UniProtKB/TrEMBL annotation:
Pfam families: MerR_1
GO molecular function, one term: DNA-binding transcription factor activity
InterPro entries per the UniProt record, alphabetical: DNA-bd_dom_put_sf, MerR-type_HTH_dom, MerR_fam
Organism: Rhodanobacter denitrificans
Residues spanning the membrane: none
Lineage top rank: taxon: Bacteria
Keywords on record: Coiled coil, DNA-binding, Transcription, Transcription regulation
PANTHER family: HEAVY METAL-DEPENDENT TRANSCRIPTIONAL REGULATOR HI_0293-RELATED, REDOX-CYCLING DRUG-SENSING TRANSCRIPTIONAL ACTIVATOR SOXR
Entry protein name: Putative transcriptional regulator
Coiled-coil ranges from the UniProt annotation: 81-115
Limits of the HTH merR-type domain: 7-76
Amino acid sequence: MNTQTPSLTIGAVAKRVGVAIDTIRYYEREGLLPEPQRRASGYRSYGDSTVAQLRFIRRAKELGFTLEEIRELLALSADRLRGVKAVKKRAEQRLAAIEQRIAELQRVRDGLAQLVASCPGHGKPEHCPILRALSDDEVKA
C-alpha cells in the first residue's frame, strides 16, 4: 500500500510533466484530476499519482483524444473487468476518425496542389485560377 503523502507543488508537477500550471488547474476544474490536498498555507500539494495521471492525459491528447474521451479512458482504466475491451474500442474509434481526417486533408492538399500548378504566378488577378476558385459561387467537392 502506498502511504506516501503528497509533497509536490503545482510548479514541480508542471515541470515534471511538461505542462503549464494553468493546464493542471484546468484539468482539476474539468474533473480529469482529483482535487489536490492543501497544505496549511493553502497551497496545493500533489503526489506521484498526479504526475502519472497528467502524463496519461498528455499522451492521450498527443494521440488525438478529446478531453471527454480522456475522461472515459481514465474511468475505463479503473474497470478491471471490461476496461481493456472498452479502451480498445475507443482507440479504434479515434483511429477511424484520424484516418477520415487524413483522407479529407489529402483531398484538400490535392485540390490546392492542382490550383497552384495551374497558376502561372503572374498576370492580372482576375485571371488567377486560385483567386477564381476561391471566389467561385459554386462549391466543388
